[in-house]
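Fold these two proteins, one after the other.
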Amino acid sequence: MFIDTIRIHVEAGSGGNGAVSFRREKYIAKGGPDGGDGGRGGDVLFRVEEGANTLLAFRYKRKFIAENGGDGAGAKFHGKNGADVVVMVPRGTLIRDAASGRILHDMSDGADYLLCRGGRGGWGNKHFATPTRQIPRFAKSGLPGEVRDVILELKMIADVGLVGLPSAGKSSLLAALSAARPKIAEYHFTTLEPNLGVVPLGEGSGFVMADIPGLIEGAAEGAGLGHDFLRHIERCRLLVQVVDVSGAEGRAPADDFAAISAELEKFSPALAAKPRLVAANKIDLLPDGEDAPEARALAAAAAAAGYPIVFLSAAARRNLDALTRGIAERLANLPPILTYEAEEAPADPADDMESAQDVRIRRDDSGAFVCEGKWIERFVRRVDFDDRESLMYFQRTLQKVGLIDRLREAGCEEGDVVRMDEIEFDFVE
């Protein structure tokens, strides 16, 4: 079974909770708070699995959940960081946001991609001791990890895509040019899934060729099988349109050529506009060869469309070198394989400086200044307070949106406690 699109659920681990603990040892008075921090939750990463060409592994496993971070403990013991989860996918897999459909990442470059980041561990009570609060009896809970539903869409990576009607000889051509061994038989739709093969050119060079299941008229409306797999040639640099020039199926080769061209145009004008070469297959079945009326009519149709044509026979291994040379010459002048750029996300409310004015400031029973509102919640959770640059960004943004001035106007003075979401700190002038 071939699976090339599937929806999965991904969860990063939550951070562990900070500990409330005090040092208690013989002969040591007033040991003070020593509660350790919680561990960080595990991340969820995607990694390319070389050699894989289907998403079948996700048929029965569609949830990937990373380990939560461990809780902190006394004696300043830090909780264990949660283990990451690595999701293996074939090269060429697109990761899309399930809700919006936008592309998050193209797994074509072989590099790991971090999709969901684990939550930060909560601070233990050792962080909250101050000259005026020497016995903090509280700690912070860990933050939840990121959660996403994504759609994995496989678009195979190949330099050349073979397209054509059923029984045109695409699988036979791939088998003749490469070491691939696709199923070959005399009935329609023998090929039920795309096949890849490497065509050698000598001295260690070559190109990758993909055989796509046969198209039929009406494929753009969902008829047949080939329409389901046309996404796999959207990356191809060159299309080779294989046409049965013998007319053994009772069709005129020129009509076959026009039918496939029309289906490609209906599916995607960009796909139809790709550079193309016509492979007139089964020429050995025509007594007059290239001089046969059917062959001349196909050559005229290809010339009118601006495509070079090569007459060959995959079964008899005739003129295959000419096809290989023609493909290599065309590829040498074509841009590299298409890669998809990540699509920008909608504006984050945390980036909307005007919404920062909706933040409310109040004093709680302990005297701390509490900043509340959706903007501050989203903003604080984006900041890594263990990173110096991130902390400086936090301070600059608070100053920029006027929250520091508003705290002063509310009566906040140096040394007062300020609480924003899960973070608490002393106000410094």
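Now the second one:
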Amino acid sequence: MKKYTIAITGSTGLIGSRIIELLTGRFTFLPLRMEDGIDITDSVGLKSKVQSLPFDFLLHLAAYTNVDKAEIERELCHKINVDGTKNLLNICESKSAKMILISTDFVLDGSTPGPKDETATPHPLGYYAQTKYEAEQLVKGKGMIVRITTPYRDNFPGKKDIVRTIRSLLEEGKPLTMVIDNLVVPTAIDDIALALGYLIEHFSPEIYHVVGPEAMSSYDLAMRIADKWHLDKNLISKTTHAQYGHGKAPRPQYGNIVSRKNIGIKMSQFA
């Protein structure tokens, strides 16, 4: 089998860095980094730096992800999430390279608790979600769209995921208020990386959900974290989705996304 070269944005982030760690050897990675002067929002400069690079796939993880600030910094959010995606897609099409866009469960409104698979109709609530959906619309039918949710990993100094954030606060003895009437699906980043390896080798321009096997409330997630690391559960109190969301950008209440597609990877149960 050919050893593909994968151009990748977001290569130093929480997910991208682990993808490279786990899949180097299986693929050759070509990071497209701001530190190297590659700005995905600058169509002319991007083309001059990337057009001639040799790659078979472009894995696009870089995004503006601050859900609340996106309501204020709309222009920046749109430039990164929509214009950046369009610029990268144009280069892929001109080179006949295949594009994989990493997206989010936020494109689905999560208004009902039932599971949402790849056929669910998107209905983004906030501006961040809207830009991710616009990016999906650009790529749909031309590249692969992979939606993920609530990613976590064992260690990453650059950024804490939700699991390590909750654990850290409990270890510090700080009280937490967690939502009891929502659903999240914790997803191991190692599983995401392995699933992407499979999807690269079995590429099809479709939508895939790469998610953990179980949905739970944020409150239940925190309680499980406390159990796993023997931390004080009395620090964890309850709130509702409506109370938590007061004054914040809208978020899906029930982020209960599932996959109906066999991606050849057994997703890990959260402890």
